[in-house]
Amino acid sequence: MPVLLKNQTSGQLHASLAQAGVSPHLARRLLAAAVKRGELPALGSDLTARLRDDLRALTEIPHLTPVRKVVSPQDGFTKYLFEGRGTGQFEAVRIPLLHRPDDLKYVACISSQVGCALGCAFCATGRMGFKRNLAAWEMVDQVVQMQADSPHPIRGVVFMGMGEPLLNYDAVMTAIGVLSEPCGMAIAAKAITLSTVGIIPGIRRFTAERQRARLVVSLTSADPRQRRELLPVEQGNPTPDLIQALREYHAASGQRVTLAWTMMSGVNVGEVDAQRLAELTRGLPIKLDLIDVNDPTGRFRPPSRAELEAFRDALRVTLAMPVARRYSGGQDIQADCGMLAPPDSTDQEV
Ligand code: SF4
């Protein structure tokens, strides 16, 4: 099996190719040339013509196949459909930073799995079921290809596309390594966000390894019974244990924990929901991101303006922590949160 060059950090590449004569410096050059130009590096003191011939035989630079690209006329969000090596197609979204019109850069929202096993009640990806984990290079190449297609730099990456990243832990962490290395995509680790629906063993491992990417946990309800209905992951990852894991993460990292709250009219935006959240997280510094639900089935609707204002008021009084409302763009091209699913991949209930 050839060594896939976007599939390993430079340190891993050095370990894989040291016997062939690859130095740590050359491993960094190999990674840089693979992600920036899709080729082997130029000859140099550490890369003779003979070693380059050997590396042609020993390595490969894989590429995703771009299948489709759709740009939102509404807000410029751009959705890409890719094929990798293995079952199924997957999507990624290029997000323009609309709130900073003079600061021309993008954030890449990428997928970590094809489909998802977790079946959140309001998510199109969940309705696909799980197809497979993506390899690290398949995550890296979503960003590489988006960057090649973009007039401005990609300065951040969010693992909020298809799949639960903590259920593909090793490959996701390798991809973060390649994306953040100066010789890789050079995207600062703190500008890379991993969004989880609350996989407790993954959060504990993330904490123990002192990973530097940002962590966002989709809580959405502070009532375990309601949460189990909305997010079936609750069954094996109960809310009290999840919050305990987040307290440990905060204690180890000093980071404020960002919780995401998918708002659903008449479901989780009442005063009682704000009170439960405040009780559950007492003593834990959090930041709450509010996101409107986008349910392809129409079962859940975003809150009305009055509901939203009342919920924010209740949060201000009971929670007294920073609260932000996140814009979920690309709605006209189904690129918004919870809507990623390639055509024909969901079952008929959609
Ligand atoms: Fe999976 Fe995330 Fe969708 Fe839940 S919201 S089903 S974890 S992709």
Detail the topology: elements first, then pairings.
Elements: E1 3-4, H1 10-17, H2 24-37, H3 49-58, E2 59-60, E3 65-71, E4 78-83, E5 89-96, E6 106-109, E7 113-115, H4 124-128, E8 130-133, H5 136-148, E9 154-159, H6 169-180, E10 192-196, H7 200-208, E11 214-218, H8 224-230, H9 239-253, E12 257-263, H10 271-280, E13 286-292, H11 305-318, E14 323-326
Helix pairs in contact: 1-2, 5-6, 7-9, 10-11
The structure holds iron/sulfur cluster (SF4).
Task: Describe this structure as you would to a colleague.
The protein has 350 residues and is of the alpha/beta class. The protein folds into two domains: 3-60; 79-333, TIM Barrel. Helices cover 33% and strands 20% of the residues. It contains eleven helices and 14 strands. The strands form three sheets. Strands 3-4-5-6-9-10-11-12-13-14 form a ten-stranded mixed sheet. Strands 1-2 form a two-stranded parallel ribbon. It has a two-stranded antiparallel sheet with strand order 7-8. The longest helix is centred in the last third of the chain and has 15 residues, at 239-253.
